[in-house]
Amino acid sequence: MRTYPECIPCILQATLNAGRLAGAEEGKLWEAMTAAAALAARADPKEPPIALGAAVAALVRERLGKGDPFLPAKREGNTRVLAVYPHLKARVRAAPNPLEEALHIAAAANALDLGVYREIDFLNMLDQALASPRGRWDFPRFQAMLEGAHTVLYLADNAGEIVADRILIEELLERGKHVVLAVRAGPILNDVTLADLQGVGLPPEVEVVTTGSDLPGVFLPLCSPEFRACFRDADLVVSKGMGNFEGLAHERGPIFFLFQAKCGPVAKEAGVRLKELVLRGPGSHGEGSGPA
Protein backbone atom coordinates (compact mmCIF):
# COMPACT_ATOMS: atom_id res chain seq x y z
CA MET A 1 0.00 0.00 0.00
CA ARG A 2 1.29 3.48 -0.84
CA THR A 3 1.35 6.44 1.53
CA TYR A 4 -1.57 8.83 1.14
CA PRO A 5 -1.51 12.52 2.17
CA GLU A 6 -3.94 11.61 4.98
CA CYS A 7 -1.28 9.28 6.42
CA ILE A 8 1.07 12.13 7.33
CA PRO A 9 -1.11 13.86 9.97
CA CYS A 10 -2.10 10.44 11.31
CA ILE A 11 1.54 9.45 11.83
CA LEU A 12 2.40 12.80 13.39
CA GLN A 13 -0.59 12.54 15.77
CA ALA A 14 0.52 9.07 16.88
CA THR A 15 4.00 10.48 17.44
CA LEU A 16 2.61 13.33 19.53
CA ASN A 17 0.57 10.85 21.57
CA ALA A 18 3.73 8.88 22.32
CA GLY A 19 5.57 12.01 23.39
CA ARG A 20 2.74 13.05 25.68
CA LEU A 21 2.52 9.57 27.22
CA ALA A 22 6.27 9.67 27.83
CA GLY A 23 5.88 12.95 29.72
CA ALA A 24 8.23 14.82 27.40
CA GLU A 25 9.07 18.41 28.30
CA GLU A 26 7.27 20.85 26.00
CA GLY A 27 10.40 22.33 24.42
CA LYS A 28 11.89 18.92 23.61
CA LEU A 29 8.55 17.72 22.27
CA TRP A 30 8.32 20.78 20.02
CA GLU A 31 11.80 20.06 18.62
CA ALA A 32 10.98 16.40 18.09
CA MET A 33 7.67 17.13 16.38
CA THR A 34 9.10 19.75 14.01
CA ALA A 35 11.89 17.33 13.08
CA ALA A 36 9.29 14.60 12.53
CA ALA A 37 7.24 16.93 10.31
CA ALA A 38 10.33 17.73 8.24
CA LEU A 39 11.05 14.02 7.83
CA ALA A 40 7.44 13.37 6.81
CA ALA A 41 7.71 16.13 4.20
CA ARG A 42 10.48 14.13 2.49
CA ALA A 43 8.57 10.83 2.54
CA ASP A 44 8.38 8.67 -0.58
CA PRO A 45 4.66 8.21 -1.32
CA LYS A 46 5.41 4.92 -3.05
CA GLU A 47 6.54 3.38 0.25
CA PRO A 48 3.95 2.01 2.75
CA PRO A 49 2.86 4.29 5.61
CA ILE A 50 4.44 1.98 8.19
CA ALA A 51 7.89 2.73 6.76
CA LEU A 52 7.41 6.45 7.38
CA GLY A 53 5.86 5.73 10.78
CA ALA A 54 8.90 3.70 11.85
CA ALA A 55 11.35 6.35 10.63
CA VAL A 56 9.47 9.08 12.51
CA ALA A 57 9.30 6.93 15.67
CA ALA A 58 13.04 6.28 15.54
CA LEU A 59 13.76 9.99 15.16
CA VAL A 60 11.52 10.89 18.11
CA ARG A 61 13.07 8.18 20.31
CA GLU A 62 16.48 9.67 19.50
CA ARG A 63 15.27 13.14 20.51
CA LEU A 64 13.25 12.16 23.58
CA GLY A 65 15.08 9.07 24.81
CA LYS A 66 14.38 5.37 24.53
CA GLY A 67 11.68 3.44 26.34
CA ASP A 68 8.15 2.32 25.71
CA PRO A 69 5.69 5.13 26.46
CA PHE A 70 2.75 2.87 25.57
CA LEU A 71 3.71 0.17 28.11
CA PRO A 72 1.11 1.14 30.77
CA ALA A 73 -1.62 1.38 28.13
CA LYS A 74 -0.64 -1.99 26.68
CA ARG A 75 -0.80 -3.64 30.09
CA GLU A 76 -4.19 -2.06 30.74
CA GLY A 77 -5.46 -3.30 27.38
CA ASN A 78 -4.40 -6.88 28.05
CA THR A 79 -5.95 -6.78 31.53
CA ARG A 80 -9.26 -5.31 30.34
CA VAL A 81 -9.73 -7.78 27.48
CA LEU A 82 -8.59 -10.75 29.59
CA ALA A 83 -11.46 -9.91 31.95
CA VAL A 84 -13.98 -10.61 29.18
CA TYR A 85 -12.07 -13.56 27.71
CA PRO A 86 -14.49 -16.11 29.27
CA HIS A 87 -17.46 -14.26 27.74
CA LEU A 88 -15.82 -14.09 24.31
CA LYS A 89 -14.79 -17.74 24.50
CA ALA A 90 -18.34 -18.75 25.38
CA ARG A 91 -19.63 -16.71 22.47
CA VAL A 92 -17.37 -18.67 20.13
CA ARG A 93 -18.39 -22.01 21.61
CA ALA A 94 -22.10 -21.18 21.19
CA ALA A 95 -21.77 -19.99 17.59
CA PRO A 96 -23.01 -22.12 14.66
CA ASN A 97 -19.49 -21.88 13.23
CA PRO A 98 -16.93 -21.31 16.02
CA LEU A 99 -14.08 -20.62 13.59
CA GLU A 100 -15.96 -17.85 11.81
CA GLU A 101 -17.05 -16.32 15.12
CA ALA A 102 -13.44 -16.36 16.36
CA LEU A 103 -12.41 -14.54 13.18
CA HIS A 104 -15.21 -12.02 13.73
CA ILE A 105 -14.10 -11.32 17.32
CA ALA A 106 -10.45 -11.02 16.30
CA ALA A 107 -11.34 -8.57 13.53
CA ALA A 108 -13.46 -6.48 15.91
CA ALA A 109 -10.66 -6.36 18.48
CA ASN A 110 -8.52 -4.59 15.89
CA ALA A 111 -10.43 -1.46 16.92
CA LEU A 112 -8.18 -1.31 20.02
CA ASP A 113 -5.52 0.77 18.29
CA LEU A 114 -3.68 3.61 20.05
CA GLY A 115 -1.92 4.33 16.78
CA VAL A 116 -5.26 5.63 15.50
CA TYR A 117 -7.10 6.76 18.63
CA ARG A 118 -5.61 8.98 21.33
CA GLU A 119 -7.51 7.22 24.11
CA ILE A 120 -9.34 3.90 24.23
CA ASP A 121 -12.24 2.72 26.36
CA PHE A 122 -11.30 -0.89 25.67
CA LEU A 123 -14.52 -2.71 26.51
CA ASN A 124 -16.91 -0.12 25.08
CA MET A 125 -14.90 0.10 21.87
CA LEU A 126 -14.81 -3.67 21.55
CA ASP A 127 -18.60 -3.89 21.97
CA GLN A 128 -19.08 -1.25 19.27
CA ALA A 129 -16.71 -3.02 16.90
CA LEU A 130 -18.45 -6.37 17.42
CA ALA A 131 -21.62 -4.69 16.13
CA SER A 132 -19.84 -3.27 13.07
CA PRO A 133 -20.87 -4.57 9.66
CA ARG A 134 -18.66 -6.90 7.69
CA GLY A 135 -17.26 -5.61 4.44
CA ARG A 136 -15.33 -8.07 2.35
CA TRP A 137 -15.49 -11.36 4.21
CA ASP A 138 -13.79 -14.25 2.42
CA PHE A 139 -14.62 -16.91 4.99
CA PRO A 140 -15.50 -19.80 2.63
CA ARG A 141 -12.14 -19.42 0.93
CA PHE A 142 -10.34 -19.11 4.26
CA GLN A 143 -11.98 -22.28 5.52
CA ALA A 144 -11.07 -24.17 2.35
CA MET A 145 -7.43 -23.03 2.36
CA LEU A 146 -7.09 -23.72 6.08
CA GLU A 147 -8.10 -27.35 5.58
CA GLY A 148 -5.03 -27.96 3.43
CA ALA A 149 -2.62 -26.00 5.62
CA HIS A 150 -0.29 -27.38 8.27
CA THR A 151 1.64 -24.30 9.39
CA VAL A 152 -0.26 -21.05 9.99
CA LEU A 153 1.78 -17.87 10.47
CA TYR A 154 -0.21 -15.41 12.60
CA LEU A 155 0.98 -11.80 12.41
CA ALA A 156 0.00 -10.04 15.64
CA ASP A 157 -0.89 -6.37 15.91
CA ASN A 158 -1.94 -4.59 19.11
CA ALA A 159 -1.96 -5.30 22.83
CA GLY A 160 -5.45 -5.96 24.20
CA GLU A 161 -6.32 -7.24 20.76
CA ILE A 162 -3.86 -10.10 21.33
CA VAL A 163 -6.33 -11.68 23.80
CA ALA A 164 -8.89 -11.99 20.99
CA ASP A 165 -6.12 -13.35 18.77
CA ARG A 166 -5.55 -16.01 21.42
CA ILE A 167 -9.14 -17.20 20.96
CA LEU A 168 -8.68 -17.53 17.20
CA ILE A 169 -5.31 -19.22 17.68
CA GLU A 170 -6.96 -21.74 20.01
CA GLU A 171 -9.46 -22.55 17.27
CA LEU A 172 -6.60 -23.10 14.82
CA LEU A 173 -4.82 -25.38 17.29
CA GLU A 174 -7.99 -27.41 17.81
CA ARG A 175 -7.95 -28.07 14.07
CA GLY A 176 -4.47 -29.54 14.31
CA LYS A 177 -2.56 -26.58 12.90
CA HIS A 178 0.97 -25.62 13.86
CA VAL A 179 0.69 -21.92 14.73
CA VAL A 180 3.64 -19.53 14.56
CA LEU A 181 2.90 -16.15 16.15
CA ALA A 182 4.98 -13.18 14.98
CA VAL A 183 5.33 -10.04 17.12
CA ARG A 184 7.37 -6.84 16.75
CA ALA A 185 11.05 -7.00 17.63
CA GLY A 186 10.89 -3.72 19.57
CA PRO A 187 8.31 -1.33 21.03
CA ILE A 188 6.30 0.79 18.59
CA LEU A 189 2.91 2.34 19.44
CA ASN A 190 0.78 -0.24 21.27
CA ASP A 191 1.90 -3.10 19.03
CA VAL A 192 2.69 -6.42 20.69
CA THR A 193 6.28 -7.35 21.54
CA LEU A 194 7.58 -10.47 23.27
CA ALA A 195 7.28 -8.72 26.64
CA ASP A 196 3.60 -7.93 26.01
CA LEU A 197 2.74 -11.63 25.76
CA GLN A 198 3.37 -12.08 29.48
CA GLY A 199 0.18 -13.11 31.24
CA VAL A 200 -1.94 -13.32 28.08
CA GLY A 201 -2.35 -17.09 28.47
CA LEU A 202 -1.08 -18.04 25.04
CA PRO A 203 -1.12 -21.84 24.61
CA PRO A 204 2.38 -23.28 25.13
CA GLU A 205 2.37 -25.12 21.82
CA VAL A 206 2.37 -21.82 19.90
CA GLU A 207 5.77 -21.02 18.40
CA VAL A 208 6.62 -17.34 18.92
CA VAL A 209 9.00 -15.37 16.67
CA THR A 210 9.67 -11.71 15.97
CA THR A 211 9.57 -9.92 12.65
CA GLY A 212 13.12 -8.71 13.22
CA SER A 213 12.01 -5.09 12.99
CA ASP A 214 10.15 -2.51 15.06
CA LEU A 215 7.95 -1.26 12.25
CA PRO A 216 4.26 -0.98 13.19
CA GLY A 217 3.54 -3.68 10.63
CA VAL A 218 5.26 -6.24 8.44
CA PHE A 219 7.22 -4.84 5.49
CA LEU A 220 9.31 -7.74 4.23
CA PRO A 221 12.30 -5.74 2.88
CA LEU A 222 12.91 -4.47 6.44
CA CYS A 223 12.26 -7.76 8.26
CA SER A 224 14.97 -10.21 9.32
CA PRO A 225 16.08 -13.00 6.95
CA GLU A 226 14.83 -15.52 9.53
CA PHE A 227 11.35 -14.02 9.52
CA ARG A 228 11.25 -13.78 5.71
CA ALA A 229 12.02 -17.50 5.57
CA CYS A 230 9.25 -18.16 8.11
CA PHE A 231 6.84 -16.10 6.01
CA ARG A 232 7.83 -17.90 2.82
CA ASP A 233 7.46 -21.36 4.37
CA ALA A 234 4.00 -20.83 5.91
CA ASP A 235 1.07 -22.65 4.34
CA LEU A 236 -1.31 -19.88 5.40
CA VAL A 237 -0.76 -16.38 6.78
CA VAL A 238 -3.26 -14.57 9.01
CA SER A 239 -2.27 -10.90 8.86
CA LYS A 240 -3.89 -8.88 11.66
CA GLY A 241 -4.33 -5.14 11.58
CA MET A 242 -3.95 -2.18 9.25
CA GLY A 243 -0.18 -1.87 9.64
CA ASN A 244 0.38 -5.40 8.39
CA PHE A 245 -2.06 -4.74 5.54
CA GLU A 246 -0.14 -1.57 4.62
CA GLY A 247 3.11 -3.49 4.31
CA LEU A 248 1.80 -6.70 2.71
CA ALA A 249 -1.17 -5.70 0.56
CA HIS A 250 0.68 -6.38 -2.68
CA GLU A 251 2.57 -9.50 -1.62
CA ARG A 252 1.69 -12.73 -3.35
CA GLY A 253 0.87 -15.79 -1.35
CA PRO A 254 -1.78 -17.46 0.84
CA ILE A 255 -2.38 -14.32 2.93
CA PHE A 256 -5.64 -13.40 4.65
CA PHE A 257 -5.90 -9.87 6.03
CA LEU A 258 -8.05 -9.53 9.14
CA PHE A 259 -8.81 -6.06 10.51
CA GLN A 260 -11.23 -3.19 10.96
CA ALA A 261 -10.90 -0.41 8.35
CA LYS A 262 -10.26 2.53 10.68
CA CYS A 263 -9.08 5.12 8.15
CA GLY A 264 -10.05 6.26 4.67
CA PRO A 265 -6.88 5.22 2.80
CA VAL A 266 -6.93 1.67 4.14
CA ALA A 267 -10.67 1.33 3.50
CA LYS A 268 -10.10 2.51 -0.08
CA GLU A 269 -7.24 0.07 -0.64
CA ALA A 270 -9.26 -2.80 0.83
CA GLY A 271 -12.39 -1.93 -1.14
CA VAL A 272 -14.62 -1.54 1.92
CA ARG A 273 -16.36 1.22 3.87
CA LEU A 274 -14.93 2.92 6.94
CA LYS A 275 -15.37 0.88 10.15
CA GLU A 276 -16.25 -2.33 8.33
CA LEU A 277 -14.65 -5.60 9.42
CA VAL A 278 -12.49 -7.29 6.82
CA LEU A 279 -11.35 -10.84 6.08
CA ARG A 280 -9.69 -10.44 2.71
CA GLY A 281 -8.00 -13.34 0.98
CA PRO A 282 -5.58 -13.43 -1.96
CA GLY A 283 -6.58 -12.72 -5.51
CA SER A 284 -7.14 -8.97 -5.99
CA HIS A 285 -5.31 -5.65 -6.27
CA GLY A 286 -2.15 -7.26 -7.53
CA GLU A 287 -2.20 -10.25 -5.17
CA GLY A 288 -2.05 -13.83 -6.27
CA SER A 289 -2.49 -17.21 -4.71
CA GLY A 290 0.89 -18.58 -5.75
CA PRO A 291 3.94 -18.91 -3.54
CA ALA A 292 5.29 -15.77 -1.89
Number of domains: 2
Unreliable spans: 285-292
What does the radius of gyration come to?
Answer: 18 Å
Share of residues in strands: 5-15%
Biggest pleated sheet? 7 strands, mixed
CATH structural architecture of the largest domain: 3-Layer(aba) Sandwich
- If helices are DSSP runs of H or I spanning 4 or more residues, what is the number of helices? 12
CATH top level assignment of the largest domain: Alpha Beta
The named CATH superfamily of the largest domain = Uncharacterised protein PF01937, DUF89, domain 3
Question: Helix-strand pattern, N to C?
Answer: HHHHHHHEHEHEEHEHEHE
Coarse morphology: globular
Number of strands: 7
- The first-to-last residue Cα distance is 17 Å
Helix- and strand-based class? Answer: alpha/beta
CATH fold label of the largest domain: Rossmann fold
Mean pLDDT across residues: 90
